[in-house]
Design a protein that fits this description.
212 residues; alpha/beta; Rossmann fold; seven-stranded mixed sheet; 11 strands; 32% helix
């Protein structure tokens, strides 16, 4: 573990100076290397920062605790979200990448903490690709996301994330001012090739610039 950076993680510098920095956030039971092939498929040449979640659930890494399926420990979620924001800031200093170019790519539990990061630390991310995400919590007041681009990709047949829950997250992010694109797949909770294609095309078409 790199001194001062308290997540086990992988960092890969950019091969393309114009590419974003992809913050990879795995699902339950994943690790810091799980989403590296996805990053390569989404944006070749991008810098990659991929931490491993610190919470263990029956031995499986997660980014925050849950009380039951779909019921989150909100106190732990808040603490872990702020911890992740601090890690991101320290990693930017250590690896010398531009904080204004960081785009989260999260799946399931990783997508949920990415959504929490958007709602808790609205300047932490320049954008986000959220695969199979839920509403992590409802902030009061709602932050100002200032047209931050967000892509939500969910499955119509997902047994864990209902269509209504997906629509609720999209509405919450739009209320906060994010530019939300919602894409549906004829799929369940697992990622499909169509997810990858849509996310790759969205990233290529979305201008990621430093926040004002």
């Amino acid at each position: 573990m790199t001194a001062g950076l308290d997540f086990v993680h992988v960092f890969e510098p950019a091969a393309d100076a114009d590419a974003p920095v992809l913050l990879l956030l795995h699902g339950t039971g994943g690790g810091e290397r799980d989403l590296l092939p996805l990053a390569a498929a989404l944006r070749p040449g991008a810098a990659v920062l991929s931490p491993r979640g610190k919470v263990l659930e029956r031995g499986m890494p997660r980014f925050f605790r849950r009380i039951a399926e779909g019921v989150f420990d909100l106190e732990d979620l808040d603490r872990r979200t702020r911890e992740l924001a601090t890690f991101l800031s320290r990693a930017a200093d250590h690896y010398r990448f531009d904080r204004g170019r960081v785009v989260a790519v999260g799946f399931s539990n990783g997508a949920n903490i990415a959504a929490s990061l958007l709602l808790t630390e609205p300047r932490a991310l320049a954008g986000a690709v959220l695969f199979r995400a839920m509403v992590p919590f409802v902030p009061d007041p709602v932050p100002a996301l200032s047209h931050t681009p967000v892509l939500l990709l969910n499955g119509r047949m997902d047994p864990l994330v209902s269509s209504a829950e997906t629509e609720r997250l999209a509405a919450l992010l739009r209320q906060a001012g994010a530019d939300v694109t919602l894409a549906w797949q004829p799929a369940g909770h697992a990622l499909t090739q169509a997810d990858v294609v849509q996310a790759r095309e969205w990233l290529a078409a979305t201008l990621v610039s430093s926040p004002p």
